[in-house]
Amino acid sequence: MMKRLVAAVTALVTAASLAACGSDAENSDTLTVGTLSDSKPNAYQENGVFTGFDNELLKAIAAKQGLKLQFVATDFSALLGQVANGKFDIGSSAISQTEERKKTVAFSDPYNYQSLGIEAAEGSPVKDEKTLGGNRIGVVQGTVSDTWVAEHAPTAQLVRFPNDAAALSGLKTKAVDGAVFDLATADTYAKENADSKLKVVYSVTTDLPHGYAFKKGNTALVDKINAGLKQVIEDGTWEKLHKRFEPNAPTPPEFAAKS
Questions:
Q1: H helices of 27-113, where?
Q2: 179: CATH
Q3: What value does the mean pLDDT take over residues 95-112?
């Protein structure tokens, strides 16, 4: 009888310990960041580390505010929904702050602006914005590229991919005649795929700001990220990272270091 009692008490203690561990995990102060693994130079994974302008900037912001981050890869088409339902605390992936997206998630203050690049291989019928119509154009589903092509080239045959890697593969294998990416990403793909003879044939600059995404109502975290963003702009960290990842892009005046 005594052995049974000891075993029962031990089981209860073990269960309580496990429950406590689970509680600690749930109350962890580490923020989970949903990002991409294949979208250079903004958000990608290299040697097992998540990097890129957006992610390195977020790391710098977090350091200023004493926040811990854990990055997790996902597809862009799913990212905002995963932020909205609380799977991720933050979404980091050159996310343009469109009015439609603001209905789903909250955003930080702007930290960059959206530019698009139309990319095609040598010999493609796609030469610029006017030649998108009638051709197969690859985009990543749910991105600004997706909505921009639908609006500006309604006769284009849109081919929607789940992520950048799939869209780039479609472009290289000529499954599509052209593709539209973030401009910095398109430039990177052209440089890294010389054998495929890819070229950015046309670029578009928009006034859409990029922002980190949050679940609506999480104002305390948004305020911390905004405070950290202001700090990394003022001390020149923003400019250093921008020159590292997007050396050919000009620095908007509002992101210049405050001397």
A1: 53-65, 76-84, 99-102
A2: 3.40.190.10
A3: 96
